[in-house]
SCN2B protein (Helopsaltes ochotensis), 196 residues
Amino acid sequence: LRSAAPPRLGMEVMAPAIINALNGSSVKLSCTFNSCYKVENKQFSLNWTYQSCSNCSEELFLQFRTKIMNKQLDRFGNRVEFTGNPAKYDVSFTLKNVQLEDEGTYNCYVLNPPDRHRGHGKISLKVLTEEPPKHDSTVAVIVGASVGGFLAVVILVLMVVKCVRRKKQQRLNTDDQKTEEEGKTDGEGNPDEGTK
C-alpha cells in the first residue's frame, strides 16, 4: 500500500485535494477514475486508507474484492458507507457524523486490470467546528439585503396604494357633500315653485 502509482502511467484517478466538513455532518469523499477497460468485478480492486498524519502508517478501512468490504476500524465504527459505483468509475464513500478526530489524509487506490499500474488519489479532510465559513455569511448578507429591500418595496407600494385610495375617498366625500348641498337648494327651491 505504501507505493503510489508512478505519475502519468496507467489509469488516472481524480479526487479533490482538500475537503472541508462540518463537525457532526455527513461528507462525501469523492474519488473517480478513468480507465481504457471495462470494470470486471473479479479483477477490479479498491483500497481506501486513512492516515492521521503525514508520517503515520496507513489504516485500511474499506476494500473492494469482488464486493465491498468494510474493515470496521474502531475510529470509524459503522459511519463509513460506500456510495460509489465501480462500473461507472466511481469509488466514492460517505463518512457520517464527522468527528474532529476524523481529520487527516484519505488515500484511494484503484486497480483495474488489464491496466498494470494502480491509480492513487489523496484527499485531505479538514473538520470545521460550528462557525460558518466566511463565504456563507456574505450569502446570508446578500439574501438578507434582498429580502429587506423587497419588503421595503412592498411597504412603499402599499403606502402609495393607501394614499391613492385616501385621495379618491376624499374626492368622493367632497363630491357627495357638493351633491347633498345642491340637493338641499333644489329641495328648498321646488316647494316655493309649487306654491306659486
Summary: Residues 166 and 172 are 10 Å apart (CA to CA). Helices lie at 134-195.
